[in-house]
Specification:
about 260 residues, alpha+beta, Tetrahydropterin Synthase, Chain A, three-stranded antiparallel sheet, 8 strands, about 25% strand
């Protein structure tokens, strides 16, 4: 009876072992590459997977998008500026069998190809392009990395440059350049405003010249504007036309004196 119980227990243990090694359950985002005696027979899943114990071996692969951080890379741009750039690569496995068979470690391989491509592409760019045309550079990086990882069954969906660390001297130079550019724009805007104002003043002078009383009205308006301010000193502009009769009399007097001196 004891031997029978021992044998039954052994059979149950063997059955549990076989069942544990024969049944696999894969999630919706997982696929299982099954090797039968070392030979790939395909990728299965999700759901319940039955394996032959001691014959089949399964390697699980996730199909979710992986966000991989590319470590900072020391790069010398085409205009000989040393910068440190890091990025992030978004990719996912589209063919589980290729990701396991064609490359030893697809995560490590994708990381290495991303780093080398980042150094190669950014080394061909000038600093201004690197700072201003990130979208174009990101698209170029994505296309190159995706073309190299496609044989591994990996699809690169996006590449984004995160940070561009500039040397302190270059930061100061860029700040001086930006300040000079702002000053140039301010001078251009000021000159354009003076040009437009001169045109308006010219038109206003033509209108006032047609109606002499207009300058008196303008004079009175200026006085009212000055009086509205709380000033300790008030300046009264005097039109030059008020002195015109006196200037004419002085001119006539001088001409008479010259005529009399000429007769003598």
């Amino acid at each position: 009876m004891t031997n029978l119980s021992t044998g039954l227990f052994a059979l149950i243990a063997i059955g549990v072992f076989i069942l544990a090694n024969a049944v696999r359950i894969l999630r919706e985002y997982e696929r299982g590459c099954i090797f039968r005696l070392g030979r790939l027979i395909g990728a299965k899943g999700p759901g319940l997977i039955l394996l032959i114990p001691l014959v089949d071996k399964m390697v699980k692969v996730t199909l979710r998008i992986v966000a991989m951080d590319v470590p900072p890379q020391d790069i010398i741009t085409r205009d000989n500026v040393s910068v440190k750039v890091n990025a992030v690569v978004y990719f996912r496995v589209v063919d589980a069998a290729k990701a396991i068979v064609e490359v030893e470690d697809y995560l490590y391989a994708t990381s290495m190809i991303s780093q080398t491509t980042l150094r190669s592409v950014l080394g061909q760019q000038e600093l201004d392009d690197l700072l201003a045309n990130r979208d174009k550079i990101n698209q170029q990086l994505q296309e190159i990395i995706d073309a190299q990882t496609e044989p591994w069954g990996i699809k690169v969906t996006a590449v984004e440059i995160k940070n561009v660390d500039l040397p302190e001297q270059m930061q100061r130079a860029i700040a001086r350049q930006a300040e000079a550019e702002r000053e140039r724009r301010a001078k251009v805007i000021h000159a354009d405003g003076e040009f437009q104002a001169s045109g308006k003043l010219n038109a206003a002078a033509k209108v006032i010249s047609e109606t002499p009383i207009g300058i008196q009205l303008r004079y009175l308006q200026t006085l009212s504007e000055i009086a509205s301010e709380k000033n300790s000193t008030t300046l009264f502009p005097i039109p030059i036309d008020l002195f015109k009769p006196f200037l004419e009399l002085a001119g006539d007097y001088r001409s008479k004196i010259k005529n009399s001196e000429a007769k003598d």
